[in-house]
Specification:
The structure holds two protein chains of two kinds.
Chain A (H helix, E strand, L loop, with lengths): L3 H4 L5 H14 L14 E6 L13 H10 L4 E3 L5 E3 L2 E6 L4 E6 L13 H12 L17 H4 L16 E5 L2 E5 L7 H4 L33 E3 L8 E6 L12 E6 L3 H9 L5 E2 L7 H8 L3 E13 L10 H9 L3 H7 L6 E2 L24 H10 L5 E7 L5 H15 L2 E7 L2 H9 L7 E6 L11 H4 L13 H11 L4 H18 L2 E13 L3 E2 L15 E2 L3
Parallel strand pairs in A: 1-10, 14-15, 14-16
Antiparallel strand pairs in A: 2-3, 4-5, 5-7, 6-7, 8-9, 9-10, 11-17, 12-16, 12-17, 13-17, 18-19
Chain B lengths: L1 H9 L2 H18 L1 H4 L31 H37 L1 H16 L2 H14 L7 H10 L2 H15 L2 H8 L4 H37 L11 H9 L7 H28 L5
Helix pairs in contact in B: 1-12, 2-4, 2-12, 4-5, 4-7, 4-8, 4-10, 4-12, 5-8, 6-7, 8-10, 9-10, 10-11, 10-12, 11-12
Classes of the chains: A alpha+beta, B mainly alpha.
Chain lengths: 542, 281
């Protein structure tokens, strides 16, 4: 589900045409006012978020907005170590029972203080199966999760609250996990673990009507107006905020259906920050923006996945031959103008535990050996790569297909599905005729485990390839129970080696944030998650 | 009258120029191999956006495919969609127009209002909705959804023309005579009325064919018409426009072919209309 984070930035081109008129109308005037600090307005281009309730938000646009409206328990330092933000301390005796102490003095934008209850309320809501929250699986490690999520989706759960959550006092609560998990503090930096005010819920315990459109959070910014769907989300500085205060007064998140439009707007200073330059514009961005075209490391991972249950791709040697027939470096150079990194491992280089080239010979471009291996293993004469047309993937998927056609002597079709939201159900239902498919992953929290469990464990939330290896499951589970990071990493690496052997997916590229900004702003940075840092950004000349 | 029209047409370059163009275009659609030596599916990033040269007169596109080969091969899908959609629209128009014009009465009122309603629906908007549904239901990405959509939405003008010519023909003495001789409705429609209603309908449909080809390109440009592996001018134009600032040739050639073909059909329709319309002769 959280795959969407990497890709939900663009919505269908069709909508773009219909909405182009309205967009043009609302992006007309000057975007920034160089006045006093608090009056400074900055605009940031995003896509339409699918949801804004934290336990239901999985796409990068929603994450960007929530970064303004909420303060997480932890944030991450330069070395990706969690540092307490809203939390005062997070301690454990045996990495199973965690005690979280909150900093006092934080309030929601409606004045309500942030207490233990704010967290317990939100987490219980997110973990309760019938609420259908997309981030529900992130609560699975907490004791009592099974009682809230019966295996039969129609059955009524036997409990409404997680037995592993205990309120100790107004600012302290305890989380009991069903098994030790040393990376838990890092996981707490994810959206699923944000708090909600009492006002978020109605009498029946559901999200109150209209709350999602006028979110009340505990972050540095508060909603200025209701969420104008497909147009903008406007926020302003929350003056009673106890944490580090932002340096600008207002942020307009402008919603674009088409990133190319956003790029043109940035070029004319109508938009201040565009966190992701569209692929076709990469080649000219340096010329267009000069030193206002920047790069920063990203945790994104692009890969090509196989339906391993499909007889065409069930032979691991067929999968390896396909991998060897792809010239990753050429695609990076020609399509991405050198802005991404060819991937030959399964875990992003931004994380401790990353090793280069864990995939071995199978990820080295070798068309001759590939063709031979493909022939020997009786690979299918026709292959297909399905991709979603709303993520700017057309060019590289077609290029990959052309490489396969040339190097393996097969027929290759690049098949577009309009939206990722159309593709995922097909994958979930194992619909025949999909063939290979592209997916991307942006980490939820900095840990190798986040690149392994959801993607490849049996029944993992983003395991769409039907891959199941008990040995892998066991290694990852063992890893997450290790008391120290180093011991965990060793086991995770062993698990990664199994992936290299089984090749359920082909690693293609590690991403990079390519962002541009207008002359109106400075101190722009984009973090590993692809979010613009809203506390650092300033308006030029103030 | 028909030989008169032919005599008038024969002497006009406005007729022969589009005919010549369409013969070439048709030949391209039937046997693209005769025109383009290169394989349109032979693409490699090695020659991504290589400019026009002796090896490839129109240059290479972003994926390193021969632009000329792709443009020539794209002719087939464009023409096929145009012709089939026109055939479908023609069939609907003939049925509706003849029924309402010949039978008249309440059926005429109902069908005429129906025509008005369909005429009032914006073609592109309705096509977007229909095609989106078609692809969401997984009913394929081939040419049929596009053909069906264009046919269902594009028959109205032709239906009106057919109706009015049927209305006029119905009052003719020879039709009355046939009726008195005991001919049935079917025979009268087919033998006496249809031949007179065909000519104006052909004129309208020829022009419609041109606009259908343009509509197909528009839909493919928007990403809801023909999809890969079908080669379509609209799709190629869309792919090329994103990188227009780096290379113009992948955009200019499919655009030119599209414009010339559409223009040829519209010119041909105009020429035929002039020939059939006695007032302009």
């Amino acid at each position: 589900m959280h795959v969407r984070r990497a890709t939900a930035r663009i919505v269908v081109a069709v909508v773009a045409v219909v909405a182009a008129g309205t967009l043009a109308a609302c992006t007309g005037g000057p975007a920034t006012v160089s006045a006093a600090d608090t009056a400074a307005v900055v605009s940031i281009g995003i896509g339409e978020p699918t949801h804004l309730i934290p336990t239901n938000t999985t796409d990068s646009s929603g994450a960007q907005v929530l970064a303004a409206l909420f303060t997480p328990l932890v944030t991450f330092d330069r070395n990706n170590k969690p540092v307490p933000a809203q939390a005062d301390s997070i301690t454990a005796t045996d990495s199973r029972v965690w005690t979280i102490r909150l900093k006092g003095g934080y309030t929601f934008h409606n004045g309500e203080p942030v207490t233990s209850d704010s967290y317990l309320r939100a987490w219980n809501f997110g973990a309760y199966g019938p609420n259908g929250q997309d981030n529900n699986p992130y609560f699975a490690k907490i004791s009592g999760y099974a009682a809230l999520n019966p295996t039969d989706p129609k059955a009524t759960p036997t409990a409404t609250t997680l037995s592993g959550l205990r309120r100790i006092d107004a600012l302290t609560f305890q989380v009991v996990l069903s098994a030790p998990y040393s990376d838990f503090p890092a996981a707490l930096g994810y959206l699923a673990f944000l708090p909600l005010p009492a006002a978020a819920f109605d009498a029946t315990g559901h999200i109150a009507r209209g709350f999602e459109d006028q979110l009340v959070g505990d972050g540095p910014f508060q909603m200025r107006d209701v969420w104008a769907h497909d147009q903008s989300i406007e926020v302003q500085r929350y003056d009673s905020y106890s944490g580090t205060k932002p340096k600008v007064g207002k942020i307009d998140f402008k919603i674009y259906q088409d990133l190319t439009t956003a790029y043109s707007d940035a070029l004319t200073n109508t938009l201040d920050v565009l966190p992701g330059v569209p692929t076709p514009n990469l080649a000219t961005a340096a010329k267009d923006f000069g030193n206002r075209y920047r790069h920063s490391p990203s945790s994104a991972f692009q890969y090509l996945a196989f339906p391993t249950y499909d007889p065409d791709y069930s032979n691991v040697n067929v999968r390896k031959a396909i991998s060897m027939a792809i010239d990753r470096d050429q695609i990076v150079k020609s399509v991405f103008a050198g802005s991404q990194i060819a991937a030959r491992s399964f875990v992003s280089p931004v994380l401790p535990g990353y090793r280069a080239n864990t995939c071995g010979a199978a990820c080295q471009y070798n068309p001759v050996a590939a063709k031979e291996l493909y022939k020997q293993s009786n690979g299918p004469a026709k292959v297909q790569i399905t991709y979603n047309a709303d993520g700017g993937h057309k060019e590289w998927v077609e290029a990959t297909c052309n490489q396969l056609a040339r190097n393996l002597g097969v027929k290759c079709v690049a098949q577009a599905e309009a939206k990722l939201a159309d593709l995922l159900p097909k994958l979930q239902n194992k619909t025949p005729g999909v063939g290979m498919f592209r997916l991307g992953w942006v980490m939820d929290y900095p840990s190798m485990e986040d690149y392994l469990t959801p993607l490849y464990s049996t029944g993992g939330s983003a395991n769409y390839y039907g891959y199941s290896n008990p040995q892998f499951d066991q290694l990852v589970a063992q890893g997450s129970q290790q008391p120290t990071g180093a011991a965990a990493i060793r086991l995770y690496q062993e698990a990664e080696d199994l992936l290299a052997r089984d090749m359920p997916v082909i690693p293609l590229r590690f991403g990079q944030n390519d962002f541009v900004y207008s002359a109106n702003v400075s101190n722009v940075s984009v973090d590993l998650f692809g979010d613009v840092n809203l506390l650092d950004i300033t308006v030029s000349g103030t | 009258m028909r030989s008169g029209a032919w005599r008038a047409l024969r002497r006009r370059p406005v007729f022969w120029v589009p005919v010549a163009i369409l013969v070439v275009v048709l030949a391209m659609a039937v046997a693209p191999r005769l025109f383009a030596g290169a394989d349109p599916a032979d693409c490699t990033l090695d020659r991504s956006m290589a400019p026009p040269s002796g090896a490839a007169w129109f240059g290479y596109d972003f994926q390193g495919c021969d632009v000329f080969a792709r443009t020539v091969y794209g002719t087939r899908s464009s023409l096929l969609v145009g012709v089939l959609a026109t055939a479908l629209a023609g069939l609907i128009a003939a049925g509706v127009g003849m029924a309402s014009g010949y039978l008249g009465g309440w059926l005429d009122s109902v069908l005429s209002r129906l025509t008005d309603i369909v005429l009032g629906i914006p073609l592109l908007l309705a096509a977007i909705v229909l095609l989106h549904r078609a692809t969401a239901n997984g009913s394929g990405h081939g040419i049929w959804p596009v053909v069906g959509t264009l046919g269902i939405l594009g028959w109205t003008t032709a239906a009106r023309v057919v109706r009015s010519s049927v209305l006029a023909a119905r009052q003719q003495d020879y039709v009355q005579a046939a009726r008195m001789l005991g001919a049935g409705h079917g025979r009268i429609l087919v033998r006496h009325i249809a031949p007179n209603a065909v000519a104006p309908a052909v004129v309208v449909l020829t022009i419609t064919l041109g606009t259908f080809i343009a509509s197909e390109a528009t839909l493919s440009f928007l990403g809801i018409g023909l999809r890969a592996p079908s080669i379509s001018w609209g799709g190629d134009i869309f792919a090329a426009q994103a990188r227009l600032r780096q290379a113009w040739w992948p955009l200019i050639w499919p655009s030119t072919f599209l414009a010339v073909t559409v223009l040829a059909f519209i010119m041909l329709g105009d020429a035929i209309r002039d020939a059939f319309d006695p007032r302009s002769r």
